[in-house]
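Hey, I'm writing a tutorial for new members on how sequence and structure tokens pair up, and I'd like a real worked example in the thread rather than a made-up one. If someone can provide the structure for the chain below, I'll link this post from the tutorial.
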Amino acid sequence: MFKIGEFSKITQVSVRMLRYYDEHKLVVPSFVDSSNGYRFYTAEQIQALNRVVLLRNMGFGVKEIKKLLLSWNPEILRQNLTEKLEKTEEVIQGEQNQIKQIQGFLKDLDNQNKNLDIQILIKSIPQQQVISLRKIVPNYYSESVLWEEISNKLSDVNRLESGQSFSIYHDLDYREQDVDIEVCVGMNHEYTDIHTDLIFRQVDRVDMAACFMIFGPYSNISIAYKEFAFWLEQHNEYCMAGENRQICHVSMCHTMNAEEYITELQIPLAYQRAE
């Protein structure tokens, strides 16, 4: 048998953690000397200790570890590991979103007194034939994933593209999660031989929309919306009516310099009804 210090050296687990595992009945010493309280371990306990350390490093709590140690079954273990993996990925995604929000707010602080002096034009948007991909995605940052997906699926038909590529935001309010986004690639004629996730459809004409260009990084979009809000208050004969669209005339696909981005927002309008 090994004293706790010797066992610590052999297993490369600190004495502090060995005492912690003993306290929680995960790895109990094989023998405790009643006269001095010294703990002793055997070589046979190394495997059990390794399992505890492994499970703890993968994020399992004491109660979970106890259950898994009682029935070290590969199928049960696989199920628990799969569930732990899914939860960990959700946590990571949440923290990545939080990082983006912090980065975005830091940019907003830098730009809080910045004005873009956007030029708003009211125009109609003609009907368009498109191949589109529409999904509920975790957040607005996930739009790039949709563009990557539709680009991969359309790699063999890109020669047919003729119109603008644009996004449609189908939610009529702002969503913190589960955002309904459709990415559309304009096509010059009907195309039926496409991936099952994609659809060929006609996007309806918009008779009247407020359209304005935003130059520079995407962080300028929130500033542009603020300026549009002031414009809409000053032109109270109009109200927003429909699903906003966004066209990236120059994006990360064209340049690595965010200052060179050119984004167009198209916000459908209607005349206010007289009270």
